[in-house]
Every structure is written in structure tokens, then in C-alpha cells.
Specification:
By secondary structure, this protein is of the alpha+beta class. The protein has two domains: 1-30; 31-129, Arc Repressor Mutant, subunit A, CATH 1.10.10.10. The model has no long low-confidence stretch (mean pLDDT 89). The N and C termini lie far apart (47 Å). It contains five helices and four strands. The strands form two sheets. A two-stranded antiparallel sheet has the order 1-2. A two-stranded antiparallel ribbon has the order 3-4.
Length: 130
């Protein structure tokens, strides 16, 4: 590693490994809906329509595909109950809880970024009208 006054920079191998790891993570969690979907189901198990209602803007087709991908990667489980009509409930698995720290960090970063953009917009308005 290369050390600077403020931080430690990774060497070429560490960068390559990190890149591979990040690409693997993004491959599994790609798209705009996967993490919000998991967050929705962490709150409580839900039926398809409940999820769609909570995640405004997601189409039924996209939701169905995202649920299949998340189930394939063991983040959620689809439970079918033999009621009339059949009840299908989606719930998170233990494996999805491994994303807790990732989601917390993304949430903090998202808040900071939103505040940064708001500040930039305020400054721009101040320069235009100041």
C-alpha cells in the first residue's frame, strides 16, 4: 500500500481485487429496485400487491423479474400457501441480512449527497440573485 498524509491508497493488486468484488456485488444487486425491495421486505413479509403499492413506480413485470432474481440469489423466499385463492408471501432470508451494513452505509451516503446537492443549488441561487 502507498501511504499519504490523509489516507492509505491500495496497490494495483488490491485495486484489481476490489474491482472484481464490486463488479460481483453490482451484478447481483444491479438495478434501481433490488435494494429497495429487500428493505421493503425487511420491514415485514408481504404479498406481491403490497410490495408494488409500497414501491411506487415499479411495474408488475419488473417487480416479478426482480423478485425472481432475488430469490435465485437467496435474498428472499417465496412462500406459497394452499388457501383459496392461493396466497404467495415474500420474505427475506438470513442471507439478506448480510447487506445490513451496505444498506446503512448507502443510506448515510445518500443523505450526505442529497444535502450536498441542496447546498450547491442554494449557492447557485445565491450567486444568480445575490
Amino acid at each position: 500500500m502507498i501511504s499519504t498524509a490523509e489516507n492509505i491508497l491500495p496497490d494495483k493488486n488490491e485495486c484489481a481485487n476490489s474491482l472484481t468484488n464490486v463488479m460481483d456485488a453490482l451484478y447481483v444487486l444491479n438495478g434501481k429496485w433490488k435494494l429497495p425491495l429487500i428493505l421493503s421486505l425487511v420491514q415485514s413479509s408481504k404479498r406481491f400487491n403490497e410490495i408494488q403499492h409500497e414501491l411506487r413506480g415499479i411495474s408488475p413485470k419488473v417487480l416479478a423479474n426482480e423478485l425472481k432474481d432475488l430469490e435465485l440469489n437467496d435474498f428472499i423466499r417465496r412462500q406459497v400457501y394452499p388457501t383459496r385463492p392461493v396466497s404467495i408471501i415474500y420474505e427475506v432470508t438470513e442471507y439478506s441480512k448480510t447487506l445490513r451494513e451496505v444498506m446503512r452505509t448507502l443510506s448515510e451516503w445518500g443523505w450526505q449527497h442529497r444535502e450536498k446537492i441542496k447546498d450547491s443549488m442554494r449557492q447557485e441561487k445565491g450567486e444568480v440573485f445575490g
